[in-house]
Amino acid sequence: MMRLPYFAYRAPRTVREAAELLASSPNAMLVAGGTDVLPNMKRRQQVPSTLIGLRQVDELRTIANGEGLRIGAGVTLSALVDNPLVRTSYGGLWQAAAQVATPHLRNMGTIGGNLCLDTRCNYYDQNYEWRKAIDFCMKKDGGTCWVATSSPRCLAVSSTDTAPALIALAASVTLVSAVGSRRIRAADLYRNDGIDYLTRRRDEILAAVELPPPDGWRSTYWKLRRRGSFDFPVLSVAAAVKIAAGTVEDARIVLGAVASRPVEAPAAAALLVGGPLDDAAIARVAEAAAQPARPMDNTDFSLLWRKRVTRDFVTYALSELRGDDMRARRRSIARQTLPMA
Predict the structure, then answer these.
(1) Where in the chain is the domain with CATH 3.30.390.50?
(2) Does domain 59-116+157-211 correspond to CATH entry 3.30.465.10?
(3) pLDDT tens, per residue, the chain with 341 residues
(4) CATH of domain 217-334
(5) Which of 92, 94, 90 is nearest to 77 (CA)?
(6) Closest listed residue to residue 204, CA positions, set 112, 89, 297
(7) Is-contact 198 156, C-beta < 8 A?
(8) What is the 3-state secondary structure (H, E, C) of the chain?
(9) Of 226, 264, 219, nearest to 97 (Cα)?
């Protein structure tokens, strides 16, 4: 049995109090649902001396209407899935949240936690004894990336479901520290480094997600995994389009689980603008969108096959946004029945 290491626990009641605790505790980590941090601690991947729990911070657990939609970082994924406005106006986010793990884990896991999810790798996500036996990797305690031994940086992969969907929806996030706050695009929260994968500073708390008004946008999210439930994505595609009178006015495509950060495909999305979302356009865009995908041999399935099926998943996503009935395809791939975008 893997046991947690010893740690101190603090339970602040406000974001301000949590930020001050974080600033004064150099080896502290935040915990909300604990579905990522606690297993990592059991495997000794992360060994904080103090955990700062956010479950009692009420201001992080609200969803509010405004110019668009403001989602507190402590909102659980289940609460997000149950929210009718998220389901009807931000379909891609709803689909992404609905496909995270299992109902039990969605009841605990939060939107903020999923956005800050640790990067994953076959060599890293093992217990301490296994990693010690092969020699530790670059991400924790070692100096070599076992995915590509000559790589100067860690190639652990981003496996968050909600980040690609939020980036496709042009969301932003609010980061709060003891000295102030700042708001950045969700896309700017990430960097392509398996170790230092977040631009969030160590003393900052991800407090909220801000979504712009739907304003005619449709969005969708498609996820590849071996099992139809529970598994992390080994490929995901989030897409959003704005269509008026049969013509695409704007579009965004974001790939997940193909790098250490979500990968935007703006050149591919631009090919849709100014024309109809017909079969020829979808085929061109799917081919172009697969180009920036650089999957590595550090998750399930062959990396070459994962890159090849990127075209298929972009095709599925855009076909669904066009209005095609893709429910049978979803059932065969995700073993889930999700609403059309």
Answers:
(1) 217-334
(2) yes
(3) 789 999 999 999 999 999 999 999 989 999 999 999 999 999 999 999 999 999 999 999 999 998 899 999 999 999 999 999 999 999 999 999 999 999 999 999 999 999 999 999 999 999 999 999 999 999 999 999 999 999 999 999 999 999 999 999 999 999 999 999 999 999 999 999 999 999 999 999 999 999 999 999 999 999 999 887 789 999 999 999 999 999 999 999 999 999 999 999 999 999 999 999 999 999 999 999 999 998 988 999 988 899 999 999 999 999 999 999 999 998 888 666 765 55
(4) 3.30.390.50
(5) 94
(6) 112
(7) no
(8) CCCCCCCEEECCCCHHHHHHHHHHCCCEEEECCCCCHHHHHHCCCCCCCEEEECCCCHHHCCEEECCCEEEECCCEHHHHHHCHHHHHHCHHHHHHHHCCCCHHHHHHCEHHHHHCCCCECCCCCCCHHHHHHHCCECCCCCCECCCCCCCCCCCCECCCCHHHHHHHCCCEEEEEECCEEEEEEHHHHECCCCCCCECCCCCCEEEEEEECCCCCEEEEEEEECCCCCCCCCCEEEEEEEEEECCEEEEEEEEEECCCCCCEECHHHHHCCCCCCCCHHHHHHHHHHHCCCCCCCCCCCCCHHHHHHHHHHHHHHHHHHHHCCCCHHHHHHHHCCCCCCC
(9) 219
What's the chain's length in residues? 341
